[in-house]
Amino acid sequence: IDMGGGKYTWINSQKHPTLEKLDRVLMSFDWEDLFPLVSVRKLVRDVSDHNPLLLSSSPVKTSPLHNREFRFELSWLKNEEFYLKAKSIWE
What we know:
This protein is of the alpha+beta class.
């Protein structure tokens, strides 16, 4: 499966970093027949030196909003309406 979001999934934190593609997604031909629109995208890494991979079985959206990184603001936790909205979304 071709991976979007970049070629490498691991980087060391050196002055001259080493970049590697260590993480992969494998599938059989039977699985590909069941999910012909499957895609893999490398996500932004936060803590680990590995990038997480997102496996999706639906077409990739190309809108500008799809490529934006999600950011969580701690101040949202002070707003009581935030909890109600989050609860309604997750139920």
